[in-house]
Structures are given as structure tokens and as C-alpha cells.
Task: structure prediction
Amino acid sequence: MPDLEDLVGEQLMIGLPGPTLRDEDVRLFRETRAGGLILYRRNFEGGDQLRRLLGALESALGRRLLVATDHEGGRIVMLGGGTTIFPDNLAVGAAGEEAFAYRQGQVEALELRRLGVDVNFAPVLDVLTERYSPNIGIRSYGKDPKVVGRYGVARIRGMQKGGLSACAKHFPGKGHSPLDAHLRLPTIDSTWAEMHMAHLPPFLEAIGAGIECVMTSHPVYPNLDPARVPATFSRLIVEEYLRGQVGFKGVVFSDDLEMGAVSEACPIGEASVRTAAAGHDLLLVCHTEAAQRTSAAALVDAYRASRLPRRALEQAVERIRRLRERRRERFEGGPPAPEPDGAPLAWAIATRAVTRVAPGRPDFTHALNGRVAVVFPRFSELAARITIEPEVADERGYLTRAFARVGIEPEAILVAPEPTPAEIAEAAERAAAADATVLFLYDAHLYPSNRALLDAVTARARALAVVLLRDPYDAGLLAPGVLGLTAYGWRKCQIDAVIARLSHP
Result:
């Protein structure tokens, strides 16, 4: 019979702090017996480096881990240097072709399996509503649960056909969450009837299509569980509904237990015990060694004290074992390719997704024949926090090359992601001197400085096009006569597609 510590370790998926393996990393995995590894940007410097890291860790441990990453596409990409960076889900939905989603899943499977990844924490199956969502937005396929379900299932089938396990998230649906669970604990007041009408259908479709994994969400749903606990801690939502009523037999993951929504509810040790008690198989503790050790110790203590039943632990571990053993080889499909496989597909999706959100003046295209000012964020300033493509991080060079393809020599005005008053003033002055201005706008509905930038440039520009770079909510801020375009995201293929459309809006 396996040791209790071994069984508990199988329930843990933890992260490493960097791209190289240290003795203390091996010691952490040995002592917690953790069976899973989640990969982040901090672990990735390239395909060969990642393969060495995984090989060294598993060799030192003498056992195979379950390796996962967040590879949603668009805004959320962890292993960007070795994979195709696809447009965001909202762009895929806007492109209007299910085959795109299926093929995307196939490409992701090919590229991620080469890198040694077993599970992709995607797709996002949250459904948007008219209520502003600060964390989902362009990560969703849209507002229609039928569209979200169709595109999500198509991508799931593509991934799983290629040997990569998909994980639908964030069950039971948080596309209408009023807060970002990374930071705070949201409350969603939807009833079961409302959830069944709008938010649960995509998950039920995915389960019906044979998805192997589901990830739950952290918000409190008081009308689903009167205990008013986060869904992560809700046995009614996880064990009784998802397992019992729906009949899901795959692996249930928690979201990261180090998020602000969880720490607001209780300490990490208690959170881990409550998450296991709710019916989760695998618990994510992603970032800090102290939290990872505390989680492992709290779970062992809870099972020893019979606060948690050992039989449920054994059943969870058996589900995890079956998932891991579906692919015995660590790296399938050969070494990583020199170039990503899906660039033509990403371009096709991005091009089809470009949408005009405001009509603009009929003479804007003619104004592009003159002096053109381009106001663009310094995305390089975000590179410490999120994946930024190297081409886009070279902002001036990128703009010169991208606009040259449509016969325009741009005058680039670079501003911070949250521009300063001096940058706003300069952008307005340069817009006033140009025949046409193109403003690439980064969430003016969230950041007052970007709203001030929009207002200042609008007041001075002779002819103005505004490109919405993230969520499309800024469309309501555009003044009459302003051309508004979006590709539902700001990855290179999406910006390229918008620039190509500018001269033929």
C-alpha cells in the first residue's frame, strides 16, 4: 500500500522559481512528493533549455511528473518562444470558423508535446455578458454560450487528437465576475437557472465530448451554494454537482491556491484541505516554496486525522495516474521546430477577426496618403510580467516594417502602457501636425491616463483611427467621426491584420 505522503504528493501540482534546476528544487519535490509541475514564463528560455530542465528534474526524482502550462493563446501564453502565438479566443470566435479552433488545437498539441507538456489549461469556456468582466474579456469566445461551446469543443478535439490533454476552465463559469480573482474574492449572484441558461452549457458540451480535465473557479456563488464559500471550497458545486449530477469522471483541478481570492478567504494550509474536501483531484500551488510545503503538510495532517477520507484520496490519485499514463513518453513529435508551425493559421484567424466598431470619416483612407502619426504603447515595458513578442517589443522597428507593407512611412510616437501627461501632450501635438493619426489604445475604460490620451488626441487630430488593443469595451468612448477597429487582442498577427485593414476599412 502506498505511503500516505506519496498519495498526498500526487494531489499537488507546484511551480519552480526559475529556468534552471537547483538542488533545493529537487529537495522540494522529494520532500513534498509533488506529482505535478506547472510551467510559467520564468521557467522558459527556449525549447532545448526546457527539455533539459524537465529531463534533469525527472531523472533526479526517478519518476514521471504530470506537466502542465497555461497556453490559452493571445493574452495568456507562457512558452511563447517555442510555440505559435495565436490570437485571443474572442478573435477566434469573431473569425467565424470552427475549423480554425480545431486546427489551433492540433498545432498546440504538436508544439507543446514536443516541449514535454502533458496538460494545457485551456480553453477558457467562460461566457461573456453585458456585465464588464475585468479578467476574462478577450479570453472568452464570446457572449453566446452555443458559440463558446462549439469553438471550445472543436479546440479540445484538436488538442486531444494530437495527444495533449485539454482542461476547460473556469467551472462553473465566471465570464460575468465583477472582480479579478487573482487579486480579490468575487461574488457572482447568478442562480442555478441562470447558470444553466448562459454559463454551464459550454462545460457540459465539453464533458460530453470527452474532455479529460476541468478547472474550477474561485468566486463565491451564494445562489448555488448557500454556504457562501468560494466554488473552490464548495462540495456542493464540485463533488455533488460536477461529479455526481453531471457525472464527470476526469481530473478536477483547482485554480492556483495562492491567488488573492483564496488568501482573502483563509490561509493556504486550510485552503488546501478545504479544496481537497470539496472533491478536487489536483491542487495548484504555483509560486512559493513556503506555500507549497504548508499545503503538503496540511493535507497529510488532515488525512492522518481522518478529517479527509483516505478512500477519496485513493480515487483521486487513480484518476491522476490514468491521466499521466495516457502518454508515457515525455517528448513526442521530435525536437522543437526552428519556427512555430501555426503562423499561417494565426494570420488567417487574425485577418478574419478584424472588426470595424466605429465607421469614421469617408475621407480617412485619402488622409493616409499624407503625413501619418502613429501613437503606440511601449509594450517592451510589460515584458517583465507577460509574454511580449520580440518583434513587437522593438516598437519603432516593428511599426516601420508593418506600415511599410501598406505603403505608409509612419511617424511613431511611443507612450507608456499608462501614458504620462508629457507623453499625452506630445501625442496630441504630433497628431495636430499630421494629416492622419492612428492611435493604438490600451484599455481606456480601465486606465484614466489612456482615457486622457484618447480625449487629447481626438481633440487635435485632423483624421483619426483608433485601434482597440484589448477588450472591445473602449468602442463606446469613441467620438463621432473616429474610425474604430479591433482584432480583439494585441499579438503581432492581430496588429498586422489591423494595419493591413486600415487602408481598406
